[in-house]
């Protein structure tokens, strides 16, 4: 069992209605992470460690929505100025019920909600960088100022926002751990295996649970 301390941070990624069953971009079994995330958050709090949340938060005209590209279909990949982008059904639109956290998520101790994907022309899978991989969200600065050095990631979806966040955390110099047991994957065209390979290259520790 991992011993947690005050320099550890739990990052709970995108546990929102649209990524849970019944949502616009539902991840199979996505709501199963809710009680696991709650338990993790309580353990981190008891150890004096930190807890933050990320929230996918798009304007209605967002570039990642298939609806905003005439003739395009959801889950198709297109080329945008910053690189390849998978197109998604419209999801997590700012201010809608789909963008709200799952009602069962019980993490009042979270000190920060990091919203991402709010720039209309660029998507943001990672909690640290936009999908151009160099426009920062500010989360690395927050972690450094708060003295967090080891970051644990869980949530939705394993192979997109959780994996890109964990990978960028390692690249930013943090010790990075992805907890697969409290995450669920979309697994689109082999995306889970591809994500696990990138995580290994980046030096991210992948564990089922702590
Ligand atoms: Zn999104």
From TrEMBL:
E.C. no: 3.5.1.19
CDD domains on file: nicotinamidase
Source domain of life: Bacteria
Keywords: Hydrolase, Metal-binding, Pyridine nucleotide biosynthesis
Keyword presence, Repressor: no
Pathway: Cofactor biosynthesis; nicotinate biosynthesis; nicotinate from nicotinamide: step 1/1
Molecular function, one GO term: nicotinamidase activity
tRNA-binding found in the keyword field: no
A Pfam family annotated for this UniProt entry: Isochorismatase
Protein name, entry field: Nicotinamidase
UniProt source species: Niveispirillum lacus
């Amino acid at each position: 069992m991992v011993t947690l301390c005050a320099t550890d941070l739990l990052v709970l990624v995108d546990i929102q209605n649209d990524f849970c069953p019944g949502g616009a971009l539902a991840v199979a079994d996505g709501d199963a992470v809710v009680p696991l995330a709650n338990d993790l958050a309580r353990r981190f709090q008891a150890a004096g460690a930190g807890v933050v949340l990320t929230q996918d938060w798009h304007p209605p005209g967002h570039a990642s929505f298939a609806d905003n590209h005439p003739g395009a279909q959801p889950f198709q990949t297109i080329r945008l100025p910053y690189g390849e982008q998978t197109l998604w059904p419209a999801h997590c639109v700012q201010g809608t019920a789909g963008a709200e956290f799952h009602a069962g998520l019980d993490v009042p101790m979270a000190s920060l909600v990091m919203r991402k994907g709010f720039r209309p022309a660029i998507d943001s899978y990672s909690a640290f960088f936009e999908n151009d991989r160099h426009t920062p969200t500010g989360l690395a600065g927050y972690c450094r100022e708060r003295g967090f050095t080891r970051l644990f990631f869980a949530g939705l979806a394993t192979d997109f926002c959780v994996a890109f966040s964990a990978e960028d955390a390692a690249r930013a110099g943090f010790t990075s751990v992805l907890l697969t047991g409290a995450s669920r994957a979309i697994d689109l065209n082999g995306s889970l295996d591809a994500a696990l390979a990138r995580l290994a290259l980046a030096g991210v520790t992948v564990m089922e649970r702590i």
